[in-house]
Amino acid sequence: MHIVLLSGGSGKRLWPLSNDIRSKQFIPIFPQLDGTHISMVQRVFRQIRQADPTADVTIATSKSQVSTLRNQLGDAVDISVEPCRRDTFPAIVLVSAYLHYVKGVGLDKAVAVCPVDPYVEGRYFTAVHRLTELAAAGTANLMLMGIEPTYPSEKYGYIMPASKNEVSSVRSFKEKPDAATAQEYIAQGALWNSGVFAYRLGYVLATAHRLLDFQGYEDLYAHYGELEKISFDYAVVEREQSIGVLRYAGEWKDLGTWNTLTEIMQEHTIGQAVLDDTCRDVHVINEMDVPVLCMGLKQAVVAASPEGILVADKGASSYIKPYVEQFDQQIHFAEKSWGRFQIIDVEDDSLTIKITLNAGHAMNYHRHAHRAEVWTIVRGQGEVIVDGARREVQAGDIIELPCGCAHTLRAVTQLVAIEVQLGPDIQREDKIKEDLP
Amino acid sequence: MHIVLLSGGSGKRLWPLSNDIRSKQFIPIFPQLDGTHISMVQRVFRQIRQADPTADVTIATSKSQVSTLRNQLGDAVDISVEPCRRDTFPAIVLVSAYLHYVKGVGLDKAVAVCPVDPYVEGRYFTAVHRLTELAAAGTANLMLMGIEPTYPSEKYGYIMPASKNEVSSVRSFKEKPDAATAQEYIAQGALWNSGVFAYRLGYVLATAHRLLDFQGYEDLYAHYGELEKISFDYAVVEREQSIGVLRYAGEWKDLGTWNTLTEIMQEHTIGQAVLDDTCRDVHVINEMDVPVLCMGLKQAVVAASPEGILVADKGASSYIKPYVEQFDQQIHFAEKSWGRFQIIDVEDDSLTIKITLNAGHAMNYHRHAHRAEVWTIVRGQGEVIVDGARREVQAGDIIELPCGCAHTLRAVTQLVAIEVQLGPDIQREDKIKEDLP
Description:
The structure is a homodimer.
Chain A: E1 2-7, E2 30-31, E3 37-38, H1 40-51, E4 56-62, H2 66-73, E5 78-82, H3 88-102, E6 110-115, E7 118-120, H4 123-136, E8 142-147, E9 158-161, E10 167-174, H5 179-187, E11 191-200, H6 201-211, H7 216-222, H8 232-235, E12 243-248, E13 252-254, H9 258-263, E14 269-270, E15 273-275, E16 280-286, E17 292-295, E18 298-305, E19 308-313, H10 321-326, E20 333-336, E21 339-347, E22 350-357, E23 366-367, E24 372-379, E25 381-386, E26 389-394, E27 398-401, E28 407-411, E29 415-422, E30 432-433
Parallel strand pairs in A: 1-4, 1-6, 4-5, 8-12, 14-16, 15-17, 16-18
Antiparallel strand pairs in A: 2-3, 6-11, 7-13, 8-11, 9-10, 9-11, 10-12, 18-19, 20-21, 21-22, 22-29, 23-30, 24-27, 24-29, 25-26, 25-28
């Protein structure tokens, strides 16, 4: 199957483990046998591959997430980058155009579009696979996945199917109702709208050519910022008569809050943490390298990262967003395609950063207009290039990078460096990419 | 008056704000008009000076606290260092010998001995002053300060005075009783034993020469480790018939636990912290430079430092000690006579440290047998000496310190450096002091 994962989201609700670069789907919370943890996006990607080993996965996302995606998924996925934020219709058209014009997927092929972060069992993606088959077979122009409700939720939109059959046509859609109305809908056989849908590529591209003025992918990409903002619901769903729904019964959750995230944690603690005997229903995720000690807490979540520390009653944690919006601070850590960085000290005219490059990876060759840097290699082996001059480096070596010089660092083995940035005007944006000599 | 402050204590109960170097009396918690905070020892020192501007203050302590004391109190106090831990009698003899033989205080002069960290009003030290006057006048060989009990505490020893007069002789002492017995004692006019006492120097030194074999201060210091371990109670108090007590009524607290410490905090938060509207009776002390966000907490204390993070129900926080003893980690920050240092990154074969030198101060001239270091100056101006060669430095300068070289850094203005330590065997103890060339 061809599956498109929509990867977006801001980093407010799961602060401090998420930030403007690390959205919630990138937080490592699922334990592996080797003691490491994988993220939601890594788990979903693995589930898709298990449901369909030949699945062709494309991630539609913004520029800011590309490095993290490459870090977490490597080169096994295609990434279709939105040059800027428009609405859902342009976004789905862009990735559909990418599939057809860039990857050469035929117009008669079906594509499933799916949020990147549902918390589901593996067989959910078997159902998504089935959804694409139904779309390919022409069951309907648009095939939706409907989730059997387990309670009258007020948080979801509802799909009213024409029948209670596993596959049915859709009679109507309902906006998020109150609980009593939700109860009525459910009695009538309503399903939760999961946000997953499948269509034949040609269907969406034909609609796109009717509504938007573009020639092929390059043209669409170049003029993306000028496209009208229309939602996929408005442009496609509301005008379509031929919509089908596939019923799915099974666990399906959005892990968008600390409350829901900790519900599915398989351990009470991740990272260095000690809970005393009187703690009840406490979850700790500690990404710092010093311990967290919890004593006598009930129904609480504690999360610590280089961005800050959250200590919250689980119920109260849902209201986090406005508080985090008050924190006007720079990003303190991020995963890059080549590894990760973390701010370890901030002074008025300097910033000290720990850089970890994965073996075989290199950062971009670049220079800075307004700052000098000093690298001290503290682990591993690799090479640096400074203004065209190549040099092998290893733990203990010091590399001075005067303001304006072009430089890069390449890891042979995993390489860790302490970078001290120096200057009166240090900005993350001050980075000029250069071609390697 | 001559007053001796006993400064000891481990750093377990107020972890993570205290550690093996920073005992509880050094934690900055009392807000000043300029927005900074002072510690218990700074507050006590100021109160003593206000009660008696000519007070001669000597602090009896161990080697490990000297740097912190110099950092917090400067050169305004004398420090008598115990070369190792014996019991209370040798300790009091040592500082008494220091006063007489080193400082030249006459044998007929009275000295008050006081724990370094009582939380009291300023007039408490007026009472201590009075106590020394009573001792000097020969009211008794040993004058104690007794606190009027405010409740039948099981935590304190009790003094049974012969009368209810302000100054009385002591009839007997009682060990920590249960609450019912405490109630009976109080009905009989008993007082809490505050641990403060005053005596004429000659009295303790005569007892010392009878029980211990030493000639003057130097000899006592040199053989201190061989002295018999005897408590002051056993050696002096239990054998003395002439003991008097001065009654004191007023606030008197030991801030030894998070519970008692937060009770006297004048603000709910120190450092970067946000509490939501539903927090009740929550105190946060955050010494990190990223925010702490608390939501929906009740009766809780949150403390964060480079050592770790504590989140505790206030009641549960009293049982912290065994948990902290599990943490077998190196010290992550300390105040030095010249400023402070803080570990900001730990790798197998490197340690990155932020060093802050106060203007006009310098670290010892020293070298390391097993590690190289790199200093990057990120703030201020000063000079370095490396193997005898002197050089002016300022923000942006890099100083390479190969393994074995002798080096020091001196601050002209406040100076901040990032120090990367490099080597397979980095130990805090690997420091060989050298004489400046």
